[in-house]
């Protein structure tokens, strides 16, 4: 009798778990009354999104704050999923996430697969290398090994540079890996966004960097959504409010320490 009961109970549990699994990879589910939105990001990108080593494993940064503020105003809860940058667009296409906040630039190519909000932050590319490498201009990169994050627009930038001066392009999944490869001498340089590179330049005293003068429109960040998501318009409205009432600027000062 007891055995039968346990078996029945186990079966019920299994059915429950299976049912939960069936919906668990569908983003935008409910927990209690509040709807939960799943945000996907690549938490290797301080001060946009990162985990502070030695502290909690919470993902913090500009994008995390922005996500919290917008979803709160819209009456949602937010759950953050960490993954490699190159998997983010796919996470939206497959319904694993409701939006991506990852310092992502709205490129024409990505726009074929996902929708973007308005731009919330603009940036430039920086070439980072060891001070003693003598790399101070694009011309100095001739014949050098240059690292970029896999799937990032910096990859495209490297290909552009390669048309001007021949370089060897290498990619890695995570930004700290690029830094590590420069340290170990496997890479001569890396292309990283200025706001993110700045943080590493402060830490790595024997590193230097120079900014590529190009159209800043090319490297801004926006929030990505699945195609035709109704969230895009809702998020844009909140973003506009936050731009107008100075809340966005507060986050800029908090995380980037200055003017945009
Ligand atoms: N803005 C660049 C891009 O969209 C790099 C973004 C990288 N973001 C990250 N979380 N690692 O390709």
TrEMBL record:
Pfam families: SBP_bac_3 (PF00497). SUPFAM superfamilies: Periplasmic binding protein-like II. Residues 36-258 form the Ionotropic glutamate receptor C-terminal domain. Keywords: Lipoprotein, Palmitate, Signal. GO terms for cellular component: membrane. The keyword Lipoprotein applies. Residues 1-19 form the signal peptide. Gene3D superfamilies: Periplasmic binding protein-like II. The keyword Transmembrane does not apply. GO terms for molecular function: ligand-gated monoatomic ion channel activity. InterPro entries: Iontro_rcpt_C, Solute-binding_3/MltF_N. Residues 36-259 form the Solute-binding protein family 3/N-terminal domain. SMART domains: PBPb (SM00062), PBPe (SM00079). PANTHER family: ARGININE-BINDING EXTRACELLULAR PROTEIN ARTP, MEMBRANE-BOUND LYTIC MUREIN TRANSGLYCOSYLASE F. This is Transporter substrate-binding domain-containing protein.
């Amino acid at each position: 009798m007891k055995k039968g009961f346990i078996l029945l109970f186990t079966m019920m549990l299994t059915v429950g778990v299976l049912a939960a699994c069936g919906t668990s990879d569908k983003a935008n589910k409910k927990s209690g009354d509040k709807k939960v939105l799943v945000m996907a990001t690549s938490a290797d990108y301080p001060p946009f999104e990162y985990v502070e080593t030695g502290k909690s494993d919470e993902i913090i940064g500009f994008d995390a704050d922005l996500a919290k503020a917008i979803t709160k105003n819209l009456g949602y809860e937010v759950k953050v999923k960490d993954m490699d940058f190159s998997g983010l667009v796919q996470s939206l296409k497959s319904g694993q996430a409701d939006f991506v906040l990852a310092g992502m630039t709205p490129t024409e190519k990505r726009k074929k697969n996902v929708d973007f909000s308005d731009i919330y932050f603009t940036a430039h590319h920086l070439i980072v290398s060891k001070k003693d490498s003598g790399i101070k201009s694009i011309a100095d990169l001739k014949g050098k090994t240059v690292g970029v994050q896999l799937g990032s627009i910096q990859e495209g930038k490297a290909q552009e540079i390669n048309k001007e001066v021949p370089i060897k392009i290498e990619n890695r999944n995570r930004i700290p890996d690029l830094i590590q490869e420069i340290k170990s001498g496997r890479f001569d340089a890396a292309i990283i966004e200025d706001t993110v590179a700045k943080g590493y330049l402060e830490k790595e005293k024997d590193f230097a960097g120079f900014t590529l003068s190009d159209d800043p429109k090319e490297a801004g960040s926006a929030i990505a959504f699945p195609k035709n998501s109704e969230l895009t318009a809702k998020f844009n409205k909140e973003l506009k409010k936050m731009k107008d009432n100075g809340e966005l600027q507060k986050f800029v000062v908090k995380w980037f320490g200055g003017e945009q």
